[in-house]
Amino acid sequence: MKKIFIILLLITCYYFKINAGEISETGLRVGYNISKFIGNDIPGKSVKNIPGFTLGGSVTYKINEKFSFQSEILLATKGSFINTIGDIEQANIFVYIEMPLLAKMKFLPEAKINPFIFCGPALNMNALAMNSVGVLDSINGFDLGLIIGSGLSYRRISFDIRYDRGLIDFDNSADDIDLKNQTISFLLGIAFYASGGN
Asked: Is the pLDDT of residue 4 over 60?
């Protein structure tokens, strides 16, 4: 059932992207995130959030005054601290190339300060996985996440908070382990081009 939902979600988002109107905005996105592993049979005694960063760009396709479709390419770190033996915490860090496809709705399109909400899937490719021991080779090279969030925009500046829930088990080391990524990000957006010169 989950796979069918994911496929339908991707098809819907790509449909809106293809049928969206003009490009209304392009820009840079940079921010801070915190993430940790969630799932069943997590190794070790406990897991804790680990800080990371997000950097990339976005293109927004305008559908109408309130609705748009935002496509992004981001470089983001994810991972978790895992308490393994005694009080020793091991940092597990993954580097992903992320490609979110977000449906976005503005509440006050004519206002200077404009609140908005968004949601959509993110296709993620793992570029590097490591911990304090070395490079990890049992990590899935592909991940899929579901993003929801909200934010505010003012002229060419925007700020958003987003929650990214991993949908695929990234650990290939054992069949009885089911681990997924969970990330909260705080992103600052700066538009280089915005239609209408806003």
From this structure: no
